Amino acid sequence: MTSQVSSPAEQADGAPTGERPAPGGANGGVHNGGGKEVRRLDRVIIRFAGDSGDGMQLTGDRFTSETASFGNDLSTLPNFPAEIRAPAGTLPGVSSFQLHFADHDILTPGDAPNVLVAMNPAALKANLGDLPRGAEIIVNTDEFTKRPMAKVGYATSPLEDGSLDAYNVHPVPLTTLTIEALKEFGLSRKEAERSKNMFALGLLSWMYHRPTEGTEKFLRQKFAKKPDIAEANVAAFRAGWNFGETTEDFAVSYEVAPATKAFPTGTYRNISGNLALAYGLIAAGQQADLPLYLGSYPITPASDILHELSKHKNFGVRTFQAEDEIAGIGAALGAAFGGALAVTTTSGPGVALKSETIGLAVSLELPLLIVDIQRGGPSTGLPTKTEQADLLQAMYGRNGEAPVPIVAPKTPADCFDAALDAARIALTYRTPVFLLSDGYLANGSEPWRIPELDDLPDLRVRFATGTNHTLADGTEVFWPYKRDPETLARPWAVPGTPGLEHRIGGIEKQDGTGNISYDPANHDFMVRTRQAKIDGVVVPDLEVDDPSGEARTLVLGWGSTYGPITAAVRRVRGEGERIAQAHLRHLNPFPANLGQVLKAYDTVVVPEMNLGQLATLIRARYLVDARSHTQVSGMPFKAEQLAEVFKEAIND
Hints:
The protein has about 650 residues and is of the alpha/beta class. Helix content is about 35%, strand content about 20%. The strands form 6 sheets. Strands 12-11-13-14-16-15-23 form a 7-stranded mixed beta sheet, sandwiched between helices. It has a 6-stranded mixed beta sheet with strand order 4-5-3-6-7-8, with helices on both faces. About 50% of the residues are buried.
């Protein structure tokens, strides 16, 4: 038997009250047949934290996968150092993985964890400030010795000095228990210790009734070439589960029911933003009936796309890992000239290096996708942290007038659709297109409804096959810059097509013929024509969420701020306030109705993870005094903080 904790609509992600049901704080628990109490919660936020070598990302990934298979809605926030192996036991070396899962629709990884699994003193100290009173802390007591505590400034043990009295602390000797469980495998102490994350995963899987079969199968596949290590990890995982079942310290376990009402009918899987984006690119190639070519140079946090696409040669995907960023985009542009759906992936520093070739793609008017997974800057900045600070670089970061469309996904799963949308624009209008994701979307995950093939857009294009212009003397010729009257796109002539030879290069082209031209009037015409082509890109009108129709304050966002903004808007509405919300996918060109939408509200608030780049564009383009709210901490917004900002804007 289980007891049910109510899950009213206002307790959805971002609810104003009762927002974080801490384990142990649910009502009406009953005992199951095994003597352990089971309580049902509507949602839980768990954070695994430890050294970057403790396997916290793997632990979080496995818990997430099992949670997805169980049917909960979920959202994740991996957070790790930039170093491959950061200094052990130090605050900069802490790696964490936060998972928010629920029996209803949620939008963010959660503002504060209900449960912290701390593998060492550094993990405890780095994350303690985020915990609400009453939160559960599962702490590996084996690591709380004098030297590890001294590394992070603990003069006395926080497990003994009363500083954790506000929390429900579970001291567990994870390392000792793991080594004891693996005695029969004949492993060294160091080898056995590596499995302590699996012990912790087993314990948490018991606490929250997660499935286990998938994790055991995963471990056997991952270590297929080392079956002894595989079985040792499975044994540690089972030992953690059994420890939860038998120890008196964990008298309660918890259930979070599947989110049966949160999703439309369909087949779902858990997916990260980078994986969704890679799948979207593959789908675009298939829908366009073109080979997909990726020219790329590895860079955090975009490298996963290169890794994933390299696995899919069966879909006509070719990947080229170049020696640098410039070579990567150069190869991609060459593939576009050759008739492929061409892509280059990077992050902010790489965009700077690619800028001249992006300008060349603008001049050549060839389809090319530039995928920018934004991270903290400037320069190499914060490689593993998130930011939205490349918008103005994408908009203007090239010499000369070189306009490029910009598309931004709003959630990890939306990266799939955004990739298809970017490909549509690139192929239809013969232009490079920026796809602006970021580290939060790239590494975060959520359930994704796998689309039906019949629902995907038709992206097929027609290559030029013959002459398209008649000279005054009646001669039939091919003009490479003769434009489609609707889209202003030029013909796409694949090299080797008889009679369609034409010049390419960065020097200005003569209208129509494509010959080199230094004529001032022609340059003026070509610059304005290229701008008009981008201005004419067809994008959907901006949709506004304003249930009452009487709101006077509008929140306008773009990209990955969607989740925190929407969660905050829900909170504000739950308190009886009226507020409208709109979210931009297309940042160049803006939706045609954006100006009309902005002028319909007295106050426009623009939250961004930069210093106000979209707000700057909005003010300049529409002469609207947009109120900018910014954050550049390397972490996503918290819904609670945004809710306070929105209430202040409403009441001003």
